[in-house]
Amino acid sequence: MLDKRMQDAFNSQINWELYSGYIYLSMASKFADLGMSGGQNWMTVQYQEELAHARIMFSYVLTRGGRVLLEAIEKPEAEWPNGLAMFEEALAHEEGVTARIHDMATLALELKDHATYNFLQWFIAEQVEEEETAMDWVSKFKMAGDHPAGLYQLDKELGARTYAPPTPLVEIDAAGG
Ligand code: FEO
After folding, report:
1. How many of the other CB atoms lie within 10 Å of CB of 156?
2. Fewer CB in 10 Å around end: N or C, the chain?
């Protein structure tokens, strides 16, 4: 059975993952507004990943006999001047997510909840990747600057991303949710 403090932390993080998805969906809309369909695609895939993160946590709480309680999702920003600003915000946001996941792992250890500590390792590794990817795009956008040819090339690269459900979610779905 999940300790109440751990359950509260999961419920808060499920909300935060959904909020993350909302931010990225808003960025997808802004990329569309800027005429960058590749950026729109990339952010839409990121939105799907965040929903997957929320579902993985949702499933874990239920597995541990906990109760998921959904809260209101904060309204995301809608306007950014360019792709660089969006990826800079994505990076700052992901650093915040990392800190939250680390706090959850610390709480799990305090509670001697080693199952949850083990569960969170996937998210800890995932956050390393999330930050690295955002940093990479920030560098690329800085290099491209305002050059149309550079931005065109970047947009093509962003358009190549495809969504693949993360392994834990594939397992959850195979087991019937
Ligand atoms: Fe679910 Fe982007 O962290």
Report:
1. 12
2. N
Instruction: Work out which ligand 1 atom sits closest to the CA atom of 20.
Output: 2
- Measured from CB, residues less than 6 Å from any atom of ligand 1 are 17, 20, 50, 53, 94, 97, 130
Length of the chain: 177
Nearest ligand 1 atom, CA 93:
2
pTM of the model: 0.97
138/142 Cα distance (integer angstroms): 6
All structural domains of the chain with their residue ranges: 4-174
Examine the pLDDT at 177 and tell me if it is beyond 90: no
Reported as a pLDDT band with limits 50, 70 and 90, residue 19 is very high
Nearest residue (CA) to ligand 1, atom 1: 50
Distances (CA, A) of 12 to 17, 95, 101, 142: 9, 17, 11, 34
The class level of CATH for 4-174 reads mainly alpha
Per DSSP, helices labelled H in the chain are 4-33, 37-63, 83-110, 114-144, 148-159, 167-174
